[in-house]
Amino acid sequence: MAIVELRFSALPEHVRTARLVAAAVARRAGVDEAVLDEVRLAVGEACSRAVGLHMSHDLDTPVRVALIEEEKKFSIEVGDAAPTASASAHNSSGSAAPAAKSDEDEAEGEMGLAVISGLVDDVEVTADDKGGLIRMSWPVIPEPVLP
Amino acid sequence: MDLSLSTRTVGDRTIVEVGGEIDVYTAPKLREQLVELVNDGSYHLVVDMEGVDFLDSTGLGVLVGGLKRVRAHEGSLRLVCNQERILKIFRITGLTKVFPIHSSVDEAVAATD
């Protein structure tokens, strides 16, 4: 298993960098060329969502991206440090997330998740009070065995 | 690649030619452009996306916002797009039912419905 990790300040201008790095590593890992556009879009959506969450919660911690090359699959994990809606819903203190997040931001985040779900067959979204994690995987084409 | 925007008018339609990448960083520029056009009284917009290399949900959100604004003035927002990878995003979000999508600017300008 080989891994590339990326951490970036939650700024919109860095999302493109994450997309480019993810696509480059995915290509090297053997993800089908025809699927690279989907990888680029999916990781962009996940990072945009994470950036939005960090900004709306006023967090200065970086967004985390792990690009994991395994024998038969390539996985991307995008982690945020925001107490997400699903996690804060379980927070009975009533002082959960700040109300800075507008409905429009919320809708964009949800649209991002909808795009990811539509694009990626193998996707898992989890959240706890420390933050959220989106894990996406794609199959890799095995290298041909040389004679 | 950054976002490029240019506008021109054809009859009562305003063509917004978009190039480059529409993402979380650049989408606010497109939003500003659409808001400005509507504020200036342009209610029939054709967004030409043939030069767009990348579009994400933030861009979709901006287009939906533009559509809401022109509809408030009984206007229209039509898209021009032939790129499969961009069209796919409209399909998986169900937005092909929301936006009229044309294969050329001429076709979009001529459309009435």
Describe this structure in words.
The complex is a heterodimer of chains A (147) and B (113). With 147 residues, chain A is of the alpha+beta class. In chain A, 39% of the residues lie in helices and 25% in strands. Chain A contains 4 helices and 5 strands, in the order βααββααββ. In chain A, strands 1-2-3-5-4 form a 5-stranded antiparallel β-sheet. The longest helix of chain A is centred in the N-terminal third of the chain and has 21 residues, at 36-56. Chain A is elongated, with a radius of gyration of 16 Å. Residues 86-100 of chain A have low confidence and may be disordered. Chain B has 113 residues and is an alpha/beta fold. Chain B has one domain (3-107): 2-Layer Sandwich (Transcription Regulator spoIIAA). Chain B is 38% helix and 33% strand. Chain B has 4 helices and 5 strands; from the N terminus they run ββαβαβαβα. In chain B, strands 1-2-3-4-5 form a 5-stranded mixed β-sheet. In chain B, α1 (27-39) packs parallel to α2 (57-71). Chain B is globular and about 30 Å long. The N and C termini of chain B lie far apart (36 Å).
Order of helices and strands of chain A: EHHEEHHEE
CATH topology of chain A: Heat Shock Protein 90
How many angstroms separate the termini of chain B? 36 Å
Q: How many beta-strand segments of chain B? A: 5
**Weakly predicted, low-confidence segments of chain A:** 86-100
Query: Based on helices, strands and strand pairing, what is the structural class of chain A?
Result: alpha+beta
Specify the CATH architecture of chain A: 2-Layer Sandwich
What is the number of helices of chain A?
Answer: 4
Task: Tell me the number of helical segments of chain B per DSSP (H or I, 4 or more residues long).
Answer: 4
Assigned CATH class of chain B: Alpha Beta
Q: How many strands, which pairing sense, and closed or not: the largest β-sheet of chain A? A: 5 strands, antiparallel
Kindly estimate the percentage of residues of chain A that lie in beta strands according to DSSP: 25-35%
Within CATH, the superfamily of chain A carries the name: Histidine kinase-like ATPase, C-terminal domain
On the 0 to 100 scale, the average pLDDT of chain A is 86
Strand order, sheet with most strands of chain A: 1-2-3-5-4
Instruction: Tally the structural domains of chain B.
Output: 1
Average residue pLDDT of chain B: 95
Span between termini of chain A: 25 Å
State the assembly state of the protein chains: heterodimer
Radius of gyration of chain B: 13 Å
